[in-house]
## 1
Amino acid sequence: MNHGVHFMAAIAFVWNERRQNKNTSRTKVIPAAGEEQLLLVDLVRSISVMRTETVIQTVKEVLKQPPAIAKDKKHLSLEVCMLQFFYAYTQRIPVTSLVDSWAALLLLLKDSIQVGLPAPGQFLILGVLNEFIMKNPSLENKKDQRDLQDVTHKIVDAIGAIAGSSLEQTTWLRRNLEVKPSPKIMVDGNNLESDVEDMLSPAMETSNITPSVYSVHALTLLSEVLAHLLDMVFYSDEKERVIPLLVNIMHYVVPYLRNHSAHNASSYRACVQLLSSLSGYQYTRRAWKKEAFDLFMDSSFFQMDASCVNHWRAIMDNLMTHDKTTFRDLMTRVAVAQSSSLNLFANRDVELEQRAMLLKRLAFAIFSSEIDQYQKYLPDIQGHMF
């Protein structure tokens, strides 16, 4: 198709002009397409020369070298609008069309990592990848599957870096991170798309603005798609390849979960939801077991929003159930705290407070379990309580 790049750029421009009214209900990081925007998808699909592979290749060229288009101050990045269109396009085309165009899609995904897309564009790339996996969970060719795994690793790493952009080093040690004291853009979990669109003006996309304004959205998106995505992309005999990636993600997640301040509440909610989803897959256990147990034993553990409790119950159930030692470790700590209270030189108030803290955690672990799951431990539990 002649002038295909300019045609698709024009589609992206009109896509932005047909955005939904912000008063509509929005609950996702990736904006849902409106009815008028979907007409553009149907228009492109109806053009016989615009086969799926051609559309993908043309979108790739738009991302690499966006044509200059006059736009007002409220216009979103052309690349982001192009990817919003393409995400909706992948949702509406047949599975066979998407699978047959895998080679072109792979090139688009690879190039997207290198062209320096703004954070919302990277969110959409992950959305496109997830859409492909949901429609076609496996590729017959082993090389294609390995390419899919490699590009998934790179895209998730990029989103992870955005998720960690509201953290800073406390010392020269790399792994010692904490939440930046300056407030981030707040989201309440019910209007995420509106928050994203408010941040997509040209002013927000300049190099003067740090990616930290998008960290909550990155964490939220990971909590929604990451666990299932990795389980689909990496086969049962390849699960070990997931662990280094998850260890890196947890490197960014744990500092948010250690911070119980009000301005970090939205990040905390997203992170506990992410950890909860990951904990449901036993092969991920090595990446989060120690960190989750340490967070559980932290003195500030119960300082959380009520909406986080059920996620922590799922985490604790998975933590205590999937092996035979973790619950025993908790019981041992309670027993040690009880026996240390006999020490004549110990501070009695401190000892009682420590024992109460451990009993609360024992109670929460039992509360998070199935009915009668720890019945065989009942004599020991009663012995620790009295």
Note: The chain has a mean pLDDT of 85.
## 2
Amino acid sequence: MVPTVHPSSSSCLTSEADEKYANGLFEGLKVYRTQVGRITLFRPEQNALRMQMGADRLCMTPPSVDQFVEAVKQTVIANKKWVPSPGKGTLYIRPLLIGSGAVLGIASAPEYMFVVSSGLNLKVDHTYRRAHTGGTGGVKSCTNYSPVVKSLREAKSAGFSDVLFLDAATGRNIEEVSTCNIFVVKENILSTPPISGTILPGITRKSISELAPDIGYQVQERDVSVDELLEAEEVFCTGTAVVVRAVESVTFYETKIKYITGENAFSTKLHVMLTNIQMGVVEDTKGWMVEVNDTIEIDTFLN
């Protein structure tokens, strides 16, 4: 696979396997401009590894980690003028892996196209389920998002920000919000549902789990019941788009629980810690940031 950079077009050729049977994966990551003018990416190799995991599940051929990171860098260089000034926002990058070979019916496409383009109030959904054991809930597949639209639309029409889904097996444990992971805080223990095939292994989730112990919090990846959620002191969500965002309230049937938010919230501390690393305000002792070298030639790629 040899990646190439082209101007975006209004259409692209895809196979029926992609168009009708959702033979596709996507990722999402942000591009930062630091205080000293450097352009950086946050842990892009983790996005590459997650795409490879998803591709294996969907019988697709993924780019290597080096190809993925290099393609993202090339896209950033080609669009560097759109990276905002420090503190003014970020550029969002959307890598895609889709079937592009000629094939009809349900089957693996013979060819794949890898493309890179540039306080919550939750309702616990006790009717619909986002993912099931043995399915694709644990990979960033295109198939995972359209099924939540109906539930999300109903929640937003009722005044909620988003939907928190429960596990399909018991209906008693929380799993994740429609597009982000969730954490529950009580005392100095940070709990989040385990990665067991039905929850997306979020890169921000992973990063927060590694940062929290640095400031004295214990992280537990385990089943978290609705009862524990309702008894928590604080709840927050993580994801590339939301970064770390506090949950103001959760409604389960007729019960509405409010949580700690604002400057004293643990989620606020974590948000500052993470974004300071991402924006180059503090030293990146974790080795997470990858600098985009503006001297790279656009037509130079890894084999």
Note: Residues 44-57 form the longest helix (14 residues).
